[in-house]
Design brief:
8 helices, about 75% helix, about 240 residues, mainly alpha
Length: about 240
């Protein structure tokens, strides 16, 4: 069990720091800078460590702290530090007592055991990673369902078009035939009327069937909207997790 006694030698500092992720060190230094130098700035959220370094360069201690923040933050001006690990960071800065004590104050809060704190940090990181994987898996599932419903809508739409064309041609043929027989006897004329009635019933049946298909399409469209909204909500959750 690691005791929460402040390290004294560079080796002890490195031994403690190597248990923490690189992002933890960046967060500690960034938080310290914000707490110490941003309080009186109206546009503090707009300031970068580089701005702060320029603003406080008359004070050697503050300027050095700002410089370290710039060195640690790979997003600002040192892309090569992206591949650094917490172990690299621990050994690189283990001789800087000022920086080490700032970090120590963060990890030794309330004099708790360091091993316990480290396990809690890892537990939180693992939990957030699992949540993110779960949301990504759900999103992929929703995307699959959306693709399936879009295919079904296309099938229904094609069916409607086929029905339209089929009945249109059939109706045209029937009308042409009936018009030619209309010139015949009254009896033939009566037969023609009956045929027209049958055609009209078929048309009504087609219209009824078309309406049913269109209702199905409306339902699938609404389902797709609902699934897409779920995808957006899950993406928002993932963004929140990434911000943490």
């Amino acid at each position: 069990m690691i005791q929460s006694k402040k390290p004294e030698s560079p080796e002890q500092w490195a031994s403690v720091f190597q248990n923490y992720p690189y992002d933890f060190f960046i967060g500690v230094i960034e938080e310290s800078i914000i707490n110490n130098f941003h309080d009186d700035e109206e546009d503090k959220e707009q300031l970068t460590p580089l701005h702060l370094l320029i603003k406080y360069n008359k004070n050697k201690g503050k300027a050095e702290m700002m410089q370290k923040m710039i060195e640690l933050n790979a997003d600002i001006n040192t892309p090569t530090s992206i591949n650094k690990t917490a172990v690299d960071l621990a050994y690189e800065y283990k001789n800087d007592n000022f920086l080490c004590e700032i970090i120590w104050g963060k990890i030794d809060n309330n004099n708790r055991d360091l091993k316990y704190q480290h396990s809690k940090i890892l537990e939180q990181l693992n939990s957030e990673t699992k949540k993110k994987k779960k949301y990504i898996k759900e999103i992929e599932s929703f995307k699959g369902r959306i693709v399936k419903m879009e295919k079904e809508i296309k099938v229904k739409s094609d069916l409607i078009e086929n029905l339209k064309e089929k009945n249109k041609k059939k109706l045209e043929r029937s009308i042409n035939q009936q018009q030619s027989t209309l010139k015949n006897t009254v009896e033939e004329n009566e037969n023609l009327k009956k045929q027209i009635q049958r055609v009209n019933k078929k048309i009504e049946k087609y219209i009824e069937e078309k309406s049913k298909i269109e209702e199905h399409i409306k339902k699938y469209v609404q389902l797709i909207k609902d699934e897409k909204r779920k995808v957006i909500q899950l993406n928002e959750k993932i963004k929140k997790i990434n911000k943490k």
